[in-house]
Amino acid sequence: MERVRAEAEATFSQLESEDDEESLAKIVRGGSLDYTFAVLKEALRKYSVVPVVTRSCVKDDVFEVVGKDGKTQRLTVPKGATVVLNIEAAHNDPSVWEEPEKFDPERFIGERDKTRDLYGFLPFIQGPRNCLGQHLALLEARVVLAYLVRAYDFR
Ligand code: HEM
Predict the structure, then answer these.
(1) Percent of all residues in the chain with a pLDDT value above 70, rounded to a whole number
(2) Quick one: which of 83, 93, 84, 77 has its CA closest to 52?
(3) What residues contact 135, with CB distance under 8 A and at least 6 apart?
């Protein structure tokens, strides 16, 4: 929490006034709230806002999957089937996340962040129908979190 507060102090002290939103957005995009960003992403992982999404299959689909035994299998998803994507499970998958039950923002910093499976972190899902508002949401939430931590002492 202290690290988030220090980032908030350093960020807001660069502003001439608290409502200088343009400068704030520029400073934040430049990375001044990077640890706060990591805290936010870790919160989105550990406490999935959207734990499950579903899709309806509009035509028969067949694709190949490689099982844990290394063998390739053909999998059919028939027209009309409902496919459930368990985001909560992906966010707690020990083959992707070391000690998934631990709240550890460092996962989202440096090499550890770059080397992770792209489909392990899905708060906004991936693909053509992913969340349209994700960049706005992440920017806003980062700033709001920094404001709150600067103003209040959370226990
Ligand atoms: C932390 C905040 C947010 C989370 C975790 C989130 C998560 C998601 C997820 C998981 C989906 C896919 C749902 C599905 O297809 O079943 C989605 C879709 C969408 N989200 Fe967000 N969202 C957030 C904030 C926002 C904001 C702030 C906006 C708008 C400003 C927004 C706009 C949309 C729209 C328009 C879609 C539908 C996209 C499409 O179907 O093509 N979201 N969001």
Answers:
(1) 100
(2) 84
(3) none
Distance from the alpha carbon of residue 92 to the mean position of ligand 1, in angstroms: 21
Q: What is the pLDDT of residue 105?
A: 96
Of the residues 44, 49, 131, which should be mutated to test ligand 1's pocket, given the most ligand atoms within 8 Å of the CB? Answer: 131
Distance 74 CA to ligand 1 centre (A): 32
User: Ligand 1 centre from 123 Cα, in Å?
Assistant: 9
Query: Rounded to two decimals, what is the model's pTM?
Result: 0.89
Closest CA to 127 of 32, 53, 41, 46: 53
- In angstroms, rounded to a whole number, what is the distance separating the alpha carbons of residues 41 and 33? 12
User: What are the distances in angstroms from CA 35 to CA 5, 106, 129, 141?
Assistant: 10, 8, 28, 13
Rounded Cα gap, residues 71 and 17, in angstroms: 61
